[in-house]
Amino acid sequence: MPPLGIFRKRFSVSDVTSVERVKNHWYYGWGMRLWFWPHMWIYNVSGFGAVELIMKNGRVYRIGTNVPRELEDAIKAVLK
Please, which residues have CB within 8 angstroms of residue 50's CB and are 6 or more apart in sequence? Predict the structure, then answer.
């Protein structure tokens, strides 16, 4: 098992086209994974709350968090 914190992902704010608060299904699971339907990357460590980012290149990322409203508001503030 790799040490904690070895995997990282950074998103450029200029590449984000939209951000939306969502709820993950239980079967999406936890951890980092590529989900094929719908096609997206999921980064989730606990709970079901998440923020979905849609990038200019069409890629979709879901970032799991216990405070999805606050994360969505913070990203939207930076996008403005």
Answer: 21, 22, 23, 24, 42, 44, 62, 63, 64, 65, 68
